[in-house]
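Justification of resources, computational component.

The compute hours requested in this renewal are based largely on the per-chain cost of generating structure records like the one below. Each record pairs the submitted sequence with a full structure-token output. That output is archived, and it is also reused by downstream analysis tasks.
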Amino acid sequence: MTQIHRESLRVGDDEISFLTAGDGPLVLLLHGTYWSRVWQPVLDVIAAHGLRPVAVDLPGSGRSGGELSPETASVPALAGWVLRFAAALGSERPLVAGHDIGGAITQHLAVHAGLERFALVNSVSYDSWPVPGVARFRDPEVVRGVTVDELVGWREQALTKAIARPLGDAERDEYLSPWRDERRARSWLRLAGAADSVYTLELMPALRESTVPKLLVWGEDDTFQPVSYAERFAAEVPNCELVRVPRAGHIPMENDPAAVGEALGRFFTAAREPSPQPAPLQTSR
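The structure output for this chain reads:
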């Protein structure tokens, strides 16, 4: 089995942490309201396809340094940051998959930076977000009154529902550990505060004209991002495949890592077939 390990590198002033495995073409795996830990179960499966998956922690998230501000927490700003992170890894044209709000970042990159193919895993789309548990933090008055312990408690409730299976104590503590830190708690609240479906709705006209290959991988039992949104996306957007994962919730990587990892590995391995080389990516926002 391929060894999964954590690395870090400096992007601007921040030390950025990421999980990775294997060697080969870079596949960036983006998180949303969780952190890189959601991707851990599938890294070795993806790497077995001759790829190098990199599950990065956004600034102020997971194990990364830095801290998001209201301005840097928006989807366009985070998309620009992802390009800088990819460049720091030596990649001008990364392959990208996004989960949750990481899927909004991925869609933005697809439209404004010309990704050659991309995947979404139980992603936000259309007007599916922010969900109520996130939307309440768009109110500055609510945010001002939140303590770290309260946030951890709310994240535990969301995590339990998202994983859709029993959690051991050590596993639960690992998932919740970033939000026990005040800096990372503030970053999460700013990510939640910047959550706005306008960012995905405005991308749909361009996505409906996009012919690049797209993959949707979806836990069928997700109550946060229902599979009906994936079905709509696959019906409206060209060259889009939907892989449904039965008996899986919002984080299907935890319910069926083999199915999710194989689908992503197969999809991104196809990108290695010879094709004309486009110009380097440049974000327009």
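The domain at 5-129+196-272 is CATH 3.40.50.1820 (Rossmann fold). The mean pLDDT is 95.
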